[in-house]
Write a structure and sequence with these properties.
With 182 residues, the chain is an alpha/beta fold. Helices cover 29% and strands 25% of the residues. The protein has one domain: Vaccinia Virus protein VP39 (Rossmann fold, 3-Layer(aba) Sandwich), CATH 3.40.50.150. It has helices spanning 26-37, 56-63, 76-88, 100-106, 124-136, and strands at 46-50, 68-73, 94-97, 111-116, 140-151, 162-168, 171-176. The termini are far apart.
């Protein structure tokens, strides 16, 4: 995996092969960050990266100037890799080992961008539960967005607060927004 833009542009990172991950492709990641670049100032964001895996998305935000990033994953190896990489590159990403749904239920921290990249084989109900829990628990700042990456055969447009979806190859980003939540 490589960091596409920012102060670490072009930096290649190699995660241990044993991690249970499917990193977002460079093409999809670049398209997503082009969208976000037109909507937000990265240095003003608070980011929550759910099902963080290798930390691919977190590193991209950090490289572009985001200073407040929390990454959540249930796998100890993933959390360890994110922590070590963040320290080596002086990114300040805070990684938590937790089940994402437990984290969302207990967290009181609000974010501007909540990005989730669950395993594609999770049931539809689990994907639907992510934005439902975020909005129910008031975890999103005004004019923030929940972005869920999922397989192209899945449709989340029926979920409350859905705003749009963008397809890149076999991946789709579904956006959920609820302005004036604070």
């Amino acid at each position: 995996m490589r960091i596409i833009s920012g102060i670490h542009k072009g930096k290649r990172l190699t995660a241990p092969k044993k991690l249970p991950v499917r990193p977002t492709t460079d093409m999809a990641k670049e398209a997503l960050f082009n969208i976000l670049n037109n909507r937000y100032y990265f240095d003003e964001l608070i980011v929550l990266d759910l099902f963080a895996g290798t930390g691919n998305i977190s590193y991209e935000f950090a490289s572009r100037g985001t200073e407040q990033i929390s990454a959540v994953d249930a796998d100890y190896g993933c959390v360890k890799f994110i922590t070590e990489t963040s320290e080596a590159l002086d990114m300040g990403i805070v990684a938590f080992k937790s089940d994402v749904f437990t984290y969302l239920e207990k967290s009181k921290e609000k974010a501007t961008i909540i990005f989730a990249d669950p395993p594609y084989d999770l049931p539809l109900e689990s994907f639907e539960k992510i934005p439902e829990m975020v909005f129910k628990n008031g975890l999103l700042h005004n004019n923030g967005a929940v972005i869920i990456e999922h397989a192209s055969h899945m449709d989340l447009s029926h979920v409350h607060n859905f705003s749009e979806k963008r397809k890149y190859g076999s991946s789709v980003f579904s956006f959920f927004e609820a302005p004036n939540q604070d």
